[in-house]
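Record 1 of the preview.
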Amino acid sequence: MKRLVEKANVLIEALPYIRNFYGKTFVIKYGGAAMVKEGLKDAFAEDIVLLSFIGIKPVIVHGGGPEINRIMEQMGKKPTFVHGQRFTDKETIDIVEMVLGGLINKQIVSLINSHGGRAIGISGKDGNLIKAKRKVIKQVSPETGTPEIIDLGLVGEIKEINPEIIISIEKEGFIPVIAPISTGSKNETLNINADYVAGMIAHSLRAEKLILLTDVEGIKDRNGRLISTLNERQIKRLVSEGVISGGMLPKVQACQKALKGGVRKTHIIDGRIHHALLLEIFTQEGIGTEIVR
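->
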């Protein structure tokens, strides 16, 4: 009986959150271990289906870097990274589109549907969801002291989000699953960082929350302690001090972009924890790092 009462208490604790979030949109960046390990994949799908059934509208943006690397190596092509971003030539972009827009996207759709959900897979090309241009990185050459352009190949930078297709899918009760690829001004396929796509989509939808699943606990201070809440002023200081760097930078930037667009709260959480989404959304303590205005 004690265990049954404890289960009832869990539901009671979640009730205010269920009431407050009913009808709201949550944009969720799905990546890392949560996409690879079988138990975590099932837990993620169960969380998404539960959110949908209780009236929350989840929008999923997924990555797929490890799978792209694996397929590239099978095809005898070595992945190359420049400033932390994948150098993407014509042969690589064909692999990226095949893996992200085909293999991984449909696997996620099938997984959610197998748990009772109603998911539909799309990419940034569908319905002109994402308008993009080729990304240009400039840096000062240490040898000459003059600015130089770093070529990333077919890597995209978002110009505009047209969320109509997402809104239409949501109205019909389906869950959008979005691959982060789009088309440039010359009709070329572009590979876009999934964190940035999630942040911009949350911005365009004025979502209630943006949640990024990662393979770390969240953002830590210089002593390795988890920071539960951060605002933009604190983030600026941590970036300048080098505490926030590397792969965490695009995640933080995505959160900041979403907040500027009216998203109420953003979260960077540990996707290696079973049912991480439910723990973050429906408990007072939450997990990971919450980023607010």
